[in-house]
Amino acid sequence: MQNSPSTIILTGEHIQQIITHVGIDAIMDELIEATYQAFVNYDSADSVMKARSGFNYAEPNEGLVEWMPIRKIGDNELVIKVVGYHPRNPELHQIPTILSTISKYDTKTGHLMALVDGVLPTSLRTGAVSAVASKLFGKKESEIMGLIGCGAQSITQLHGISRMFDLKEVYYYDIDPISQQSFESRVAMLNLDCSFIPSTINEILRQSDILTTGTSIGIGEGPLFENAKTKDWLHINAIGSDFPGKFEIPLSFLKKSYVCPDWIKQATIEGECQQLSESQIGESLFNCLKDANKHKNLKGQLTVFDSTGLALQDLVVSTIFLNHAKAMNIGKALIIENESIDEKNPYSFLTTLKKS
Ligand SMILES: NC(=O)c1ccc[n+]([C@@H]2O[C@H](COP(=O)([O-])OP(=O)(O)OC[C@H]3O[C@@H](n4cnc5c(N)ncnc54)[C@H](O)[C@@H]3O)[C@@H](O)[C@H]2O)c1
Question: What angle do helix axes 12-22 and 311-328 make, rounded to 10 degrees?
């Protein structure tokens, strides 16, 4: 074991230490920029992503565990996030709906280089990509944000968007009155100079310049609304649709909007795009960002960013935290893998023990 390489472990506590040290706004700004760069420079010849896969089940706690992989050929590394989604976690166990860990492997050997808590990083990277999409599609003067769903993701959605726009009002709604009532106090630490207005779905749609739908609506229970009146330029970040049969936005609204999926391959399986035919789906966020001029006119139109969540974002966020950990000299180095002295004899350690 002595010669075995170590694995860097970043626990949730390390993530908190980094955020406390760097500052939440600075971390979000860094992540927004890195997310933008990762999408705009995305090259499928160097990055191989596989659509998410996993297990879903009704018992013992309705939910799913999935894995999301990406291989960066040039960097000889591979990142896999394993993520659990159990929407009754808050009620049953007082823990977040989404728990995850991000692992990073060396493709030269298969060695596990790092293991990073993914709970807060997942929320952060989901907020960051909505910020990137909103900057591209949202009206420059946007100052009213709407939130449908006031769970864990809503905090970083608001945070991300607030770094791009000078928000004056935030309208919000959650089907669970306790989540709705506690929302304002949960976002107080963002120190935003805006009014928070508890509202209804229809009023949020009427008022918002930019809106995030981030609910744990059940499979087959969508959409969240029908025939709502909106501003002509409303941009929606639809982040809650991430499973076959689960969607938030009505087909009628999607049909009159420009729909930009994060990644068509995944969005047609489990995003809002599962409701659409190929000809009704716009370019992916990769292409829209690469060719931003071509998409400039979309700013005055109805747009939907169909965010299913990509392994690319997990790679970006874990790299940021690992870099900060290195600079701060924190994290745990553990030798996990048993690389036996005789590589052709996994029992060789027994011989060594006997000898000594
Ligand atoms: N796109 C991505 O990359 C990405 C990343 C993380 C999470 N998500 C998705 O975002 C959603 C929210 O995740 P979370 O971590 O905030 O979960 P959460 O459980 O913390 O919050 C979800 C909230 O939605 C509310 N809700 C459920 N049905 C509703 C309805 N019909 N109307 C209004 N509110 C409703 C719940 O009461 C709850 O407060 C989930 O569906 C999750 O899978 C997507």
Answer: 70
Predicted TM-score of the model (pTM): 0.96
32 and 162 inside one domain: no
Mutate to test the pocket of ligand 1, among 126, 187, 215, 239 (most ligand atoms within 8 A of CB): 215
How many domains does the structure of the chain reveal? 2
CA dist., res. 158 & res. 123, Å (int): 11
Is residue 28 domain-shared with residue 55, that is, in the same domain?
yes
Pocket of ligand 1 (CB under 6 A): 85, 87, 90, 97-98, 122, 126, 148-153, 173-176, 179, 214-217, 224, 239-240, 242, 307-309
What's the pLDDT tens digit per position in 7-26?
A: 999 999 999 999 999 999 99
pLDDT digits (tens, 9 = 90+) for 182-207: 999 999 999 999 999 999 999 999 99
Residue numbers of the domain that contains 302: 137-309
CATH code, 291: 3.40.50.720
Q: Is residue 127 part of a domain?
A: no
